[in-house]
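Supplementary Note 3. Input sequence used for the single-chain structure prediction.
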Amino acid sequence: MTDLLTGKTILITGASSGIGASAAHLLAREGANVVLTARRQAELDRVAESIAGNGGDVLAVPADTTSADDLRRAVAAAVERWGRLDGALNNAGRTQGGGRLAEVTDETFDSVAEVNFKGVWLAMRAELRAMTVEGAGGGSIVNVSSIGGTFGAAGQSVYGATKAAVIAMSRAAAAEYGRDGVRVNAIAPGATMTEMMVAWQQRDPGIVEHLSSLAALGRPGRPDEIAEAAAWLLSDRAGYVTGMTLGVDGGTAPWPH
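The predicted structure, written as discrete structure tokens, is reproduced below.
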């Protein structure tokens, strides 16, 4: 590893699997103190134990990203343990499970919006407060959006709308907090082989092959490849990058209607 993040304390939401778990391992290998949050405690503990077993500095804090109190507690735990919060990867999210717009239920809309949009806002609010207190020195926040948030995709109306909202909110926060030394960026992954993609493939056999056919690289991404992009944005090597959305999508063209 390159010690890209040596000495930095970084919070990761949705760290029990997929992109979040891959990022947790990578950031720890790159020298960061990692604070992991997720709802599923058993899975979260397994990720933390693996990192600790490889010599990483890690703290697992079970938290629901839709709970302001949980997120405040996670940020406070990071500051108490390491004295500061230098970065955050807000990764927790959920899919709408397909369906055309008029077929989406109220319950699905509310759940997707609460996790993907409000959850990121709640996390950013807690993180920004820690990064902007006197003497904190700023930090870097990376929010996980999606390629679905950059154009309209059939079957992803609500999901895409929430991910577009994450991009807009990230840009606004970058403008608001830049003078406080805080950089805020988003990443927009394409089809990535996470648990959500596996579940989608089970609902819609052939979707991975279809999405791969739209990518210039001809394949889906791996969670570790998405994590690498986030790690760079969290590092000082991206010190003049803020308010941007980095596509990590293998050169995917817009989905046909």
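Residues 9-192+224-248 form a domain with the Rossmann fold fold (CATH 3.40.50.720). The CA atoms of residues 107 and 113 lie 10 Å apart.
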